[in-house]
Amino acid sequence: MINIPAGTRILLATQPVDFRRGAHSLAGLAQEVLAEDAFSGAVIVYRGKRSDRVKILVWDGSGLVLIWKQLQQGSFRWPPIIDGVMKLSMVEFVALFDGLDWTRVQATKGILRPTVAV
Fold it and tell me: What global pTM score does this model have?
């Protein structure tokens, strides 16, 4: 699993990309097509034409990190192909990365604080 700090923006590029692209090419694509800065620390998730592969690009403060994953069986659950970018919660990202149906998970809004009756 990938360790991502809390509060990090996670962006999913909804259009498939050419998986021959490397880190710098994907960073340029983020700027040109998604209007996002790949060097901002945001996690940018790219999909290929084949639904069993994912590339993840993130700037860790000292360099670009490119993670490539291919599922052995099955495929990643992707949203419909449209132009633009989607924001994912941490819970949705973890489910997507694990090959689960991320559309069926929900993040909790917070823990309720108990009230003390006087």
Answer: 0.81
